[in-house]
Amino acid sequence: GQNIDQPTEMTATEGAIVQINCTYQTSGFNGLFWYQQHAGEAPTFLSYNVLDGLEEKGRFSSFLSRSKGYSYLLLKELQMKDSASYLCAVMDSNYQLIWGAGTKLIIKP
Amino acid sequence: DVKVTQSSRYLVKRTGEKVFLECVQDMDHENMFWYRQDPGLGLRLIYFSYDVKMKEKGDIPEGYSVSREKKERFSLILESASTNQTSMYLCASRGTGVTDTQYFGPGTRLTVL
């Protein structure tokens, strides 16, 4: 079967760095997406990785290792507004997105 | 900017009622999707459509049907609502490129009493 695993909840301090991990087992791989979802709102796109390595975009970076079936989202200089759920999704061989359950990130002052 | 709109943010219906959820996108996207989102379960695909009048079942189609008569509009229908269909319903659209992201509507929180 297809499976995406990510931690249910994480807590971090304002100004710090946090890494949210995602492991996956899917039938085929056509890229991995990270989305951010604030409570009561729709998910919004953060990043896309299809090749191994680190993609940096401002305070957010995303890493992919296809051989390990592993990705992480790195958030630096955390701000209170980063409190949200972070969703990992993999595009499988049928070009369908398989979604993880999401990681709720709580930022404390 | 891509815009995906949904007909209602909040909806309360009674068991057995027929429910229509409508979604409209303004980016001429071929692909449209209906998900439900429940705590701890993540996004689960109900139905998707890759063209007008075309539809494909997702992971949990039971109790739902869809309609796509126009490219910009994708409707989700609950023929006879049940309490276990209380959920957040999210519509999304996407272009045809592999790297194209999905754009989501604001969601409809449906409560079935």
Describe the structure.
The complex is a heterodimer of chains A (109) and B (113). Chain A has 109 residues and is an all-beta fold. Chain A has strands at 3-5, 9-13, 18-25, 32-37, 44-49, 53-57, 60-65, 70-75, 84-91, 97-99, 103-108. In chain A, strands 2, 4, 5, 9, 10 and 11 form a six-stranded mixed beta sheet that branches. A five-stranded antiparallel beta sheet of chain A has the order 1-3-8-7-6, with no helix packed on it. Chain A is globular. Chain B has strands spanning 4-6, 10-13, 19-25, 31-38, 42-49, 56-57, 65-70, 73-78, 87-94, 103-104, 108-112. Chain B starts with a strand and ends with a strand. In chain B, 35% of the residues are buried. Chain B has 113 residues and is mainly beta. Chain B has no helices and eleven strands. The chains are: A mainly beta (109), B mainly beta (113). The A-B interface holds A 4, 8, 30-31, 33, 40-45, 48, 50, 87, 89, 91, 95-97, 99-102 and B 4, 40-45, 48, 90, 98-99, 101-107.
Keywords summarizing the entry:
heterodimer; A: 109 residues; mainly beta; six-stranded mixed beta sheet; five-stranded antiparallel beta sheet; 11 strands; 0% helix; 57% strand; B: 113 residues; seven-stranded mixed beta sheet; four-stranded antiparallel beta sheet; 52% strand
Rg of chain B is 13 Å
Q: Report how far apart the termini of chain A are.
A: 40 Å
Report the strand count of chain A. Answer: 11
Order of helices and strands of chain B: EEEEEEEEEEE
Query: What's the total helix number of chain B?
Result: 0
Annotation field: number of helices of chain A: 0
Task: Supply Rg of chain A.
Answer: 13 Å
String of helices and strands of chain A: EEEEEEEEEEE
Give the beta-strand count of chain B. Answer: 11
Secondary structure class of chain A reads mainly beta
Query: What level of helicity do the residues of chain A show?
Result: under 10%
Structural class call of chain B reads: mainly beta
Shape of chain B: globular
Point out poorly predicted stretches of chain A: none
Largest sheet of chain B: 7 strands, mixed
The average pLDDT of chain B is 94
Q: What's the story with the biggest beta sheet of chain A?
A: 6 strands, mixed
Q: State the oligomer.
A: heterodimer
Mean residue pLDDT of chain A: 95
Rough shape of chain A?
globular
Measured by residues with Cβ under 8 Å of the partner chain's Cβ, the largest interface is: A-B, 23 and 18 residues
